Amino acid sequence: MRSWVGSAGVACLLFACGPKPEAAAPPQPKVIETPPGAPVAEVPDLSPVAKPAELVVLGRIARPRVLAETVAQWSNVPVKLEDMIPSKARQLSRAVLWEAPIEMLVALDAFGEGKVPPPLLIGSVGLKSLDEALSVADAMQMPTRKVAPGVFRVGDFPDASCAIAVSLGKAPARLICGKANKDVDALLPYATRGLPSEPQTGADFELSLNAKPIQDRYGRDVATLRLLAGVAQQRLALDSPQFDRALQDAIYGGVDEVINLFNDLDQIRLEARVDSARNVLTGSGELRLKGNSSWLAGTIGAIKPAAIPSTLPRLPPEATMAGYNTSLPAERYAALGRIAGELATGLLEHHKLPEATRKRAKRLFDGWFAAMPESFSFAVSPSQGYLHPDTIITRLSEKSTRALSLYDDFFGLMTDPGVKRWAKTKFSVDEKIWPKLTKKPLKLAGFKTPGTLFEVTVDLKALGASNESIVKTIKKMFPGADEKQRGVLLIAVQPDGDFTYVLSGDDPKEMARVMAEHRKSEPGATLARPARADNVALAGFLTLAYFAHTVERSAQEPKLGKAVAAAPNHGTTPIPFSTTTGPGSARFDFEVPAAVFSDTTSAAMSAGPALKDAFDKR
User: Fold this and answer.
1) Are residues 2 and 159 in contact, defined by beta-carbon separation less than 8 angstroms?
2) Which of 14, 39, 105, 446 has its Cβ near the most Cβ atoms within 10 Å?
3) Pairing state between β 151-154 and 375-380
4) How far apart are CA 101 and CA 123, in angstroms?
């Protein structure tokens, strides 16, 4: 059976394909003088309607024609909106006003049955006129029934309900479709006589979720989550004092955070705008909080956005991804580090691992959360082939002591004899396939102090006799095996005075080459960022080439990278992004230039079928 969404979609489609209309003024109530005894003409009710208190979600495409046709043009597919409609429905396109907003409303059902009744939901499409919409329905032999002056039920769908009604705003009439009659009856008045008269934000697309109706309805229910924490603790406890204490902190702390964040939340908002002057689609997402009782609210308030320094080191022109972040308030993460460390050491103690192993695990978590310094990083795609990982270089604004200790403890745990014995007993992991670690000095040009290279190798040939699921997992991590069938991962820590470089890749020569490019004295590329990125917590960019390399490594299909490289702009156009925080809010911004749409279309047409086949096989 079709879902109500499918049925409503069919109904909307029947009114969704008209030629470009002339904008029509909304009908206005008229005073009609009639002779004594003559029947009085029915006048539609266009009196204003207030926003329902139960309204939770509002979605809007403000200019459907502009958005669709601009993106199509940027994608080198210059078609009209009507051309995008299936041919069978194209002849039925007389009624829709594509210059008017398409809207969606979701509201809580105040009279619904059950503890959490399904919400009310409708979609609303602008029409040229009531008469023209009824004419289209008649031509399609769709039944219509008048339910009020200017309001007609249309269609006969088993799992959806649709109505046509006169409306205020840019569209003189609207098609309203929902899951059932009660959805349409409850929200049609606001969709036609309230929402169209409210001021718009100017966004071409927007989606907002308002928390207050949910808080008013379910606030007491959410508070009872704490009662479930004790049950969860009993089921997960190991009868280990250290682990069980940390588990209690984690469970009750997590539940309290859910409750506090639920109460702090004000609104979540997404939007996008067509910037025709710059040929860019801008977008943003914002989390708005009205309280500060949650850990997240306190952390957002403690972050100090700053301007991107003009003294950042050189960014190689071949970089496919780059980013800068300010230092984060490490004190806000101290409790997380403590709980994680105690959970790890308690678990290891429960499984009888040596004290030295437990101390190493504790140091790892303590060190990880001890500082979150300012950093600058970038990635360069490999020249050796698609199976090799990107070379990623990160510069931390701190001395190398903490980074070296972290990697010493991390790789020390990976090769710890006690961990190996436990893995063999618990998961039947043969020591022959266990990763091998080599630690040695590294000399990079331009640095006085030698670095430290951690080399992790996996014998892929030995994996053949092991557990099949483990084999697949490890081969996905190391698809670029060398001639000896070894998967290789390299991590280098390079001191640089008050800074520390961390490099990752699988080829020391390529890593040295990229570092040499980074250290050149000549000007490099610009760290692209959105136009709104003044003071930021994080800012940077990625490219279609970076995304393509990530996907083709996962699918082990080289055609995607080749298709992107052959696209008009070669997938190198930056897609900038940034995050910032303010009192009670956290915001994410991004920009997608027209060149990215063009390259995406070109690559999809060239490599789409091969990529689909590759993922289907996997």
Assistant:
1) yes
2) 105
3) unpaired
4) 11
DSSP string across 71-91: HHHHTT----GGGGS-HHHHT
> What DSSP string describes 483-519?
TTSEEEEEEEEEEETTEEEEEEES-HHHHHHHHHHHT
Contact 379, 321 (CB under 8 A): yes
The first and second tokens of residue 403, run together, are 């980074």
Rounded-to-integer distance, Cα 100 and Cα 92, Å: 18
List % helix, strand, coil for the chain (3-state, nearest 5): 40, 25, 35
Nearest Cα neighbor of 185 from 155, 151, 159 is 151
pLDDT, one tens digit per residue, over 492-533 is 999 999 999 999 999 999 999 999 999 999 999 999 888 887
71-103: per-residue pLDDT in tens?
999 999 888 887 777 666 555 677 999 999 999
Residue whose entry in the numeric block shows the structure tokens 């994608």 = 75
Give me 590's structure tokens.
């991004």
Strands 538-542 and 575-582: antiparallel
DSSP H or E segment with residue 13: helix 4-14
pLDDT over threshold 60, residue 618: no
Q: pLDDT tier at 283 (50, 70, 90 boundaries)?
A: very high
| Helix ranges (DSSP H) in 194-240 | 212-223, 225-236
Kindly report which listed range (74-83, 186-195, 400-409) carries the lowest average pLDDT score: 74-83
350 Cβ partners below 8 Å, 6+ apart?
A: 238, 239, 240, 243
Angle at the Cα of 200 from the Cα atoms of 197 and 204, rounded to 5 degrees:
130
DSSP string, 138-183: HHTT--EEEEETTEEEE---TT-EEEEEE-SSSSSEEEEEESSHHH
State both tokens at 63: 């200019």
Q: Compare 113 and 74 and report the one with higher pLDDT.
A: 74
φ/ψ of residue 169, rounded to 5? 90, -160
Give dist(CA 279, CA 597) in Å, integer.
Answer: 11
Of 388, 385, 376, 306, the closest CA to residue 541 belongs to: 376
Residue 574 is encoded by which pair of tokens?
A: 């930056």
Could you report the per-residue pLDDT of 142-175, keeping only the tens digit for each? 899 999 999 999 988 888 999 999 999 999 999 9
